Amino acid sequence: MSFMKVLITGPESTGKTSTALRLAEDFGFQYIPEYARQYLEINGPGYTYDDLAYMASEHIRIYRERSGQNVILDTYMLNFKIWFLYRFKRYPGFIDDALSEGEFDIVLLMYPDIEWEFDPLRENRDDRLHLFQQYENELKKLEWPYQIIRGQGNDRVDQCKKLINDCMIALN
Predict the structure, then answer these.
(1) Which uninterrupted H or E stretch holds 147?
(2) Which of 109, 98, 83 is nearest to 16 (CA)?
(3) Kind of pairing, strands 5-9 and 106-110?
(4) How does the average pLDDT of the chain come out, rounded?
(5) Residue (of 43, 40, 41, 18) closest to 31 by Cα position
(6) Burial code of 78-95, b = ≥16 C-beta within 10 A, e = fewer?
(7) How far, CA to CA in Å, does 3 sit from each of 68, 111, 112, 127, 161?
(8) pLDDT tens profile 114-155
(9) Secondary structure (DSSP) of 11-79
(10) DSSP state, 97?
């Protein structure tokens, strides 16, 4: 039996979490949260290279534990790679290993056309478009099937639902 894997990715404050939660609920898929947010909510917004490496490795572990189910991921190693490069100009090799294993049926790349919302864990208010371009470039290199999601509110979710439904039909 094949399980569907949907990745929601893109710069911060583009609706990834709210969209992923809604889609997981609507489709009955397992939601895999962004582990980094959980870690930073407990430990505070300060972090080191090693902290970020730990967050990434835990995210991989959680994903692998749930890989035998239909899943919606709120970010994955693409987010970590870009985050490492933005903050530290380097990243650990296990990120590329995890990316090479990435088998997603569809990747939903969130465009930064919604208003940035303050959050003490967010860092890149003014760089979202530049970061979006990095996401798209990396997705092209990886040759992952992706769609750019634009718009406001329910329009974003409706676009995602249609794309997931179309993907489900194509897989069956």
Answers:
(1) strand 146-149
(2) 109
(3) parallel
(4) 91
(5) 18
(6) bbbbbbbeeeeeebbeeb
(7) 7, 26, 29, 35, 17
(8) 887 767 666 666 788 999 999 999 999 999 999 999 998 889
(9) SSSSSHHHHHHHHHHHHTPEEE--HHHHHHHHH-S---HHHHHHHHHHHHHHHHHTTTS-EEEE--HHH
(10) H
**Adjacent-strand bridge partners of 108:** 8, 147
CB 99 within 8 A of CB 77: yes
**H or E stretch at 160:** helix 154-171
Residue with tokens 């090693």: 50
Q: How many CB atoms lie within 10 A of CB 172?
A: 6
pLDDT digits (tens, 9 = 90+) for 29-58: 999 999 999 999 999 999 999 999 999 999
Decide: 55 and 113 in contact? Cβ < 8 Å.
no
Rg (CA), the chain: 15
d(Cα 36, Cα 114) in Å, to the nearest integer?
A: 22
Who's near 84: CB < 8 A, 6+ residues apart?
A: 49, 52, 56, 90, 91, 92, 95
- Nearest CA to 102 out of 81, 131, 128 is that of 81
pTM for the whole structure = 0.93
